[in-house]
Task: structure prediction
Amino acid sequence: MKKIIILLLTPIIILFANTFKNYIYNVSGKVETFLLVDKTKQKLFVIDEDSTGNTSIIDTFRVTTGRSPGDKEKEGDLKTPEGIYTIIRKISDNKLPEKYGPLAFILDYPNFVDRINKKNGSNIWIHGRNEEIMDFQTEGCVSLENGHILDLAKYVTLQRTKLVIVDSLEASGTNWEEYHRELRDFIENWKTNWSDGNLEKYFDCYSDNFKENGHSFETFKKRKTRIEKNYSWKKIEIDSLRFLISKREVVASFHQTYVSPNFTSIGEKQLLLIADSNGFNIVKEDFRRIGNRIPVNEEISKFIALWEESWESIDVEKFLSLYSEKFVIDGKDVTWFADDKKMKFSKIIKIDLKVSNINSHSSKIDQWVVTFKQQYQADNYKDVGFKTMIVEKQENGEFKILNEVWRRSK
Result:
């Protein structure tokens, strides 16, 4: 597979604060603190984003890196690797040889892209140093003075903090506006094809090297094809989209909401992208679900309980708020329905309402047909029957009633 090498370089270190977005492209979400090492300048930058969305360098450290120039390829070549790494563990001073100082952070080298490129080696750390720092004096690690490694620790969250290592921050000539547009378009196409069930185009977004939990791309395709047959529709929504970029890979991170006829799943997803002559490909993806899957029948049952409560308490405003502006009943619109209910509610002193046997199914995106048994008594009137509603999930996740039909029991 022929690869496009995307160089990520900036003019001079003094102007770095204005050009670091070569490495971070924030579309719609807050950027987590990450670290960036310039091997040529022997500097480590801590990059953060404040509450107003302004991204900036919040700290800078003098470092030393591998004795040999270039990107690490194999064990013992004395090179510091280049790419995007995660800090996965730390080792404290009582478990470290003295030469590594008081603290060491372990990187996930070789990472997935390294292994695809058949690179090897191990024990690439960020660590302290019990001697004066000089340029290019490690065996491949990134090393700081002992006091500085302790200062750096406050910016690190294990298993989350990313380290981007580049050879140099000098100019590359990359058209960043076009490059960022291609990234946005790729993620949008991936999401749309997945939502629409266009599996051929969806699978085209993935590399043949893709693996999911150790399983092959072919196994992934079979699983996705099987799932696709289980649902009449699904919808994927993403927000808080941001990219970390290196010369050989891109990490796309975002908040993902997956809605299907049966459940809603919410979490954080990361896609690892590499490029070939045809564009970007996904080689790895990770999803961390926030909370449990939410069964749609539970969501609908809570909505019907709210509807029942507002009716029984004769709270006409709360009751009507559960109906869509698109609501229609017997050919009459929501305005007629609202006037009719306000008139009827004004004449009722007490309502007893009982709902049971709630069932729902869906064949249309974001809409469910809900049926239940309804026992109603108000003042001197009572009846028992079955109600069918069409409810629609709104963009904010709430349900609204589009239509309802009442059938009295014989």
